[in-house]
Amino acid sequence: MIYLDHNATTPLSAQVLQAMMPYLRECWGNPSSPYRFGGEARAAVEEARARIARCAGCKPSEIVFTASGTESDNLAVRGVARASRSRGRHIVTTAIEHHAVLKTCEALAEEGYQVTYLPVTPAGVVDLSTLAESLTPETVLVTVMHANNETGVLQPVEEIGRLVHRHGILLHVDAVQTAGKFPHRFADIGADLVSFSGHKFYGPKGSAGLYVREGTPLSPLLTGGAHEMGLRAGTENVAGIVGLAEALDLALYSSQEEGRRLRRLRDRFESLVRGTAPSAKFNGASAERVPNTSSISFKDVDGESVVLALDLKGICASTGSACSTGEPEPSHVLLAMGLSPREAQGTVRVSLGRDTQEEDIEATAKALAEVVERLRALSSA
Length: 381
Ligand code: PLP
Fold this sequence. Notes:
Layout lengths: L1 E2 L10 H12 L10 H21 L6 E4 L2 H15 L6 E5 L4 H12 L3 E5 L9 H7 L4 E7 L11 H10 L3 E5 L18 E5 L10 E5 L25 H39 L4 E2 L10 E5 L5 H10 L2 E2 L15 H5 L4 H5 L1 E5 L6 H23 L1
Parallel strand pairs: 1-11, 3-4, 3-5, 5-6, 6-7
Antiparallel strand pairs: 2-8, 7-8, 9-10, 10-12
This protein binds pyridoxal-5'-phosphate.
Pyridoxal-5'-phosphate binds next to helix 3.
């Protein structure tokens, strides 16, 4: 199998699994229990929090553990909206966010909040002057993703942070597609809240976190115990949290060198595809992108059919975000970048990872050329 869908999820690293095992087998106590056995689990959770804080460049008390990137996004957006209700009810986001943010904003709109969805340029980037114009005295939160999961395009989040802070507005950054992939410490982005998720950087699924800058007004989503500084009730997933810290540390350690390697492979892949399909469109390629992602729109083929045909050849790719697979609608991200519904439907996403080698790239480019040619011949027959 050639796995080229690392933006959907990544395999659990052997070293991460090893670090987690003692907390699944022997040290399975409840971190809130008062006896020593519980204390050992508490110590593991707090050590993981301190480790993540070191990676993120923040205080341990600014890290809240959650069960997914989706939950982190929900906590950030809903949590700030609810806690800031008396100050204002306007939220600014972009048209290309992950559904974890978009659907949350839609739900808040039904509760009476006003939401502005910023457009993006054809390259997939938010325009800072449009953002500045959208801010009102009622705006309490701007929520913008760091890298888009479908195209890999990066947003100028540091500049956005400086802009919104000048107006006393909070910034949430969904860094699910960049945390662990970039050498940067994600608290250094300058946002007030940052979402990250373990399974995107070779950690366990169901273990994620939210950086919450000290003093940020935030209401919890869940009612229950006073876990996680009162921000997330529920017994901690100790092994998952240990795995999250181990995975982030490991990923950051190699991120610079790995980023260079992936960029070289991705660029080689794109030039091979360009050679066989000159009319193919590389979405977001003129913008700054994460180094592992390639989103390609082919003329006159259906992306879903390409993905299924590649699967028969043992290659895992995607049409876009895993969450929208099975949905017949074209990607909202690509439509926002100005693609026609037909172009958007003809799109395939390839996302490289730690195990991707040169021969995988060459075999995939060759398979893609064969599949696209065959499907085109079928559709024109
Ligand atoms: N945000 C982005 C940008 C994502 O790509 C994803 C997952 O693909 C999420 C949020 C949701 O993360 P999780 O799968 O951990 O719920």
